[in-house]
C-alpha cells in the first residue's frame, strides 16, 4: 500500500494524475526540469523535486534521478504518464528493484509489445488478426524493397520502436522506396535509438480504431469500448472521438474481444490501448480490422473514454496498482452519449504545422466540468503567462466535449473552440475549426487520409472580416481603455467643436501596412470611415456593429502587438514604431532561415553550388521530426552559415544565395 505518488512526467498529464490522486486522498510529488520550475504540475503537487536541465535526456529521462526523488520524498509509487519513460521496461525494472510500485504493466508486457515486428508475431500466435507485411529481422535495403514488392504497393514503412507517427513513410511506387526507407530509418534512430523498420500493406481507406483495455493482477481483463482516431496528419492524431461513427455492435464486440485476448496473451496489468487498422471502404466489418500495435500506457485521448463511460481511468490505475480487482465487470460497462477531443497545439498549420514558441499572453477557455452528460472539459498543462519552449511537445491543451448524440457533442466542441482565446503564439485553432466544418467529418465519413486529401482547403486562410481591423485600431489607439464614462472627462475624449473627430491608426499584418480611419460617433463609439462597421466600449467590453448586426468581441494589446479573436481565429497586428527605420530587415528570396528552433541535421548544399527552386538544401530536426528546407528560387549558393549538428534559433540564417542579376 502507498499513500504518496510521484508523477514521472510533466504538462497536462502530470496535472491530470495529480487531480485524481488528490481526490483519492493521496499525496503527490512532481519532478521537473529547470525550465519547468514554475509549471502548472509543479504548483499543483504537494512536493516538487528538480531533476536536471531542460533537455529531456538530462531530466525527464533520467531514471536514477526520478527514483532518488521518490526515495527522498517517501513516495511509494511512480506514475509514468505517457511518453518519456512510460514504455521503457528497463525503467519499470529499476523502479521495482528500488522497492517502489510502478503504476503500469509489467516489464515483460512492455517488451512483448515494444517492438512492432515481435508484437505482430505474438499476436498472430494468439489468433489476433494482423496486417499482411514483413516483420522480420533482416534490414538490408534490397531485402526490404523485395518484400515491399511481394506485399504489393502501396506499402507503409514503420519504425519498429516507438510511435506517434515518427519513422513512418507511405510509399506508393517502387521507385520511391529507397528514399522513403532512408528517411524512416533516420527518424526512427533519432526518435527511438533504433533504425530497424517493418513493411506493411497500406489499407487504402484506413480507419484508426483503438480499444481501451484494463487488466488487474487477479486475471480480470475488460475493454472500455473504442475510440476512432482517424483524423490524423503525418500519422499524428488531431481529433479523436468515442464511440466510432458507424460502428455495428457485433463488430465492436469482435474488436473488443480481440483486444482483450491481446492483453491476456502478454499477461497485461493496468491501462492499455490495442490499436487496429480497419478497412472503411465498405463500412466496419468483423473481417476488416487488423492489429497494428499496443500502447502499454494511458493514452493522450483517454478523456473521451472517460466521458462516455463516466469512469476515471487514473482512479482505476491507482486501484489496480494497490492490488485491487477491477471495479466493474464487462457486462456492467455502458456507453453513454458521444465525446470528442481536440488537441490544441502551438503550431502553424499554414506553414506545414511547424511547431511554434512564445509566451501565452492570453489563454482563456470556456467554463468546463467533468464526467457530466453534455459537459465540456479542458485538460491543460499551462496557464496564461507560461512560456511555450522548444524543449517539449507544443501542446497547449486538450478540449473535450460530451453530448447525448454525436451531433450535439460536435456542436459543443465547435462552440468551445470558437470561445477559446490564445495570444502570444500561433495555434492550430483555425485548422481545428475548419475540420469541424468538413462535410465528410460531420457525416462520420472518416479515414486517415481525410486531412491529407483536403489539406489545402483545411489550412486555407479565410478573408479577414471587416470588423477585425476596426477592433485592432481601437485597441491600438488606446480608445478602448479605460471604458468611456469611467471618469468625468472620458465622455469628451476625441470631441471636436468643428465636426466629427477622426483618427488614423497604422497597423501591420503579415507584411501589409493598414491605415484605419476611425470617426467618433459619440462617447466610446467609433466607426470606420466609409463603412457600416462600428465598435463601442461599455462596462461589459467591446461591441461590434456591422450593417445593423450587433455582437460582442474580444481584443487585447500586449506591448506593440494587438490580437483580435474572431470565431476561433486569432488575428495579430503589429503597431509600427514611427521612429523605426523604414527599410525592412531580412534577406527575402536570397536566404533560407530556420522556421523554428532546431538542430541542423543535414546540409545538402555547399558554397558555389547551382541549385533549382524547390531543391532540398537542408534538413532541420525539431520536436524529433525532420523538416526539409528547399531553395526559394533558382540560383547559386553564396555562403553556408550553419553547420551540421549546430543548434539554431527561429529566424537564424542557414545559407544565402548570390543576389539575382538586375
What does this entry show, briefly?
The protein is an alpha+beta fold.
CATH architecture of the largest domain: 2-Layer Sandwich
Shape: globular
Helical amount among residues, as a percent range? 10-25%
What is the mean pLDDT? 90
And the CATH topology of the largest domain? D-amino Acid Aminotransferase, Chain A, domain 1
- Count of helices? 17
Count the strands?
Answer: 39
Q: Radius of gyration over alpha carbons?
A: 27 Å
In spatial order, strands of the major sheet run 14-13-10-11-12-15-22-20
| Main structural class | alpha+beta
Distance between the termini: 78 Å
Low-confidence stretches: 483-499, 579-587
The biggest sheet amounts to: 8 strands, antiparallel
Q: What's the number of structural domains?
A: 6
Full CATH superfamily name of the largest domain: ATP-grasp fold, B domain
Give the amount of beta strand, in percent.
Answer: 25-35%
Q: What is the CATH C level class of the largest domain, in words?
A: Alpha Beta
What does the model show?
Residues 120-322 form the ATP-grasp domain. InterPro entries: ATP-grasp, BC-like_N, Biotin_BS, Biotin_carboxylase_complex, Biotin_carboxylation_dom, Biotin_COase_C, Biotin_lipoyl, CPAse_ATP-bd. By secondary structure, this protein is α+β, with helices and mostly antiparallel strands. It has six domains: 4-103, Rossmann fold (3-Layer(aba) Sandwich), CATH 3.40.50; 104-131 and 209-336, ATP-grasp fold, B domain (D-amino Acid Aminotransferase, Chain A, domain 1); 132-201, 2-Layer Sandwich (Dna Ligase, domain 1); 337-461, D-amino Acid Aminotransferase, Chain A, domain 1 (2-Layer Sandwich); 466-580, 2-Layer Sandwich (Glycoprotein, Type 4 Pilin); 587-657, OB fold (Dihydrolipoamide Acetyltransferase, E2P). The chain is built from 17 helices and 39 strands. The protein has an eight-stranded antiparallel sheet with strand order 14-13-10-11-12-15-22-20. An eight-stranded antiparallel sheet has the order 24-25-26-27-28-29-30-31, covered by helices on one side. Strands 3-2-1-4-5 form a five-stranded parallel sheet, sandwiched between helices. Strand 2, helix 2 (40-44) and strand 3 (47-50) form a beta-alpha-beta unit. Helix 4 (89-97) runs antiparallel to helix 5. Residues 483-499 and 579-587 have low confidence and may be disordered.
